Amino acid sequence: MHELHHKMVERDINHWLEYELLSWNWWILFGFAIIPWIIWLKFSDRKRRLEIILIGTLATIPTTYLDALGVDLSFWIYPVQLIPIAPRAMAFDMSMVSVTYMLIYQFFFKWKSYIIALLIMSLLFAFIGEPVSKAMNLTFYIRWKYWYSFLYYIALGITIKFIVEKCKGTYRKEV
Q1: Cα–Cα 20 to 30 A to 72, which of 65, 84, 100, 109?
Q2: How far apart (Å, rounded) are the C-alpha atoms in residues 3 and 166?
């Protein structure tokens, strides 16, 4: 069993080296992975970085896990990956999605403005970003609808803000 797994990993790495690395799709993923973090470093509030990073972490963990589950259940495919031995949607989940949630949290303090920003982000990601990613052959949807993503982005955004706000409230009570 171990040998079979090793051969499959080796095959995946060879495929990545021959067909994916430095392809135009790979360069787009590279940009998706790097540019959001450059923007975040430039605009992040240094005084609130720990709190904001918590938002990004709380967005990244379930998104990465659910993305892997979606691949395993054949809901979608990522034909190109940034790094062969990493989560397939790393550029999306650990960069674009998490950084966007962090920036929304940072700039929209009140629940009402946060929800409005969250709705706009969800609309843009689900109904523009995902179709564009599909058109660029970065994703291929098998059993998934864009509105599922729309609902997920909203639910996740509300959940992570709620958790961080509760943690902040608890921390303030203890100090």
Answers
A1: 100
A2: 47
